[in-house]
Amino acid sequence: MATFRSTGERGDGVEVVLTDVNPYGSRTLVVERDEISSVAYLCEPTGAVHGAVWLANHAPAPPAIDLNRLNSGRPPVAPRANTRHPSGRPPLGTLRPLWFEEGDGVALYENDELLAVIPGWADMTRAMPGYSRDAIGETPFAWSLEEAREGLAPRLAKARSYWEWRGGDGAWASFQQFVMGHLDRAVGSAGRFWDAGGGRLPTVGITERPPERSRRYTILSTVGMSCQRMPTVEQYIDRPDAYARVELAVATPGDPRDAARLFMWLGQYPWHSVTWLGHGHTARWYHRPETFPLGSAYSGVILLAGLPGLPDPSGFTFGGDAVQWLWLVPVTAEELETAAHDYRELLPLLSADRLIRAS
């Protein structure tokens, strides 16, 4: 199937009947049709196709896959043995997308009935298409939705409930209140609060916890990352429910506004880049070394689920999932190279002192 789709008019007899961008701006659903068939593409912002699924034939099905049509960039046609409508069916009715909470997958409804699903794990480079209601068995461009419906149903129900809740009055304010209250108890009293979302989803804020009692350094935490599950976790982790929701934290003895720049960098990264952050992951600073917020000696951060000598913010749950706080610890360029092979080699070198003395 094609590797690039335009979201404008094709001009070659193929009509773009629907385009819809996910709430995070990282994936676009494009539905195309001609007089023969209809297809849906899940595209990256560049237009490159990540996932795709054949939707329907509108003319009699051929006995085998039409490779010439497939290679021409036109919507594929399912063979006779792989469609529930071998004589073809009318053009699609009213279409409505339902994005997964993570934003990496989407369900497509026709007249409020489930028509197709392109999950986040769909990948045309690995011959893994989406699921189609009209499909029978498996082809390179569609797998049977009927055979996958039972497994997909809970995921779609959660997505529907999530977006209904997220669009309700006071949803963000109530979530923010819950997280802030948890941090009051686990870390200390709140200071200033900054916006790190820039008006884009996901909404992310930064809460400051100034020095108090015996703690002589400030702790900063994101507020909002855990309000939605991160994309792609299930592709790498057997128990994604324990790792899909995170917040980031950092400790600093310096100006908290400098350290807060780390959250401006990473707070929305999983959803905008369709990836995830977890224990042992690293991130290389994107700008000149002298601009790194925790000191020019460092070139990036390693994310750790816990660090001796720092508070333990765990114990918060949302959407039935435990939320994991990941500490951002500065590392050198050499340490980033070491971590690329095995982050565990770095652990004996890391402590809270590196954070609270970073400068």
Automatic annotation (TrEMBL):
Residues 210-341 form the Suppressor of fused-like domain. This is Suppressor of fused-like domain-containing protein. It holds the Pfam family SUFU. InterPro entries: SUFU-like_domain.
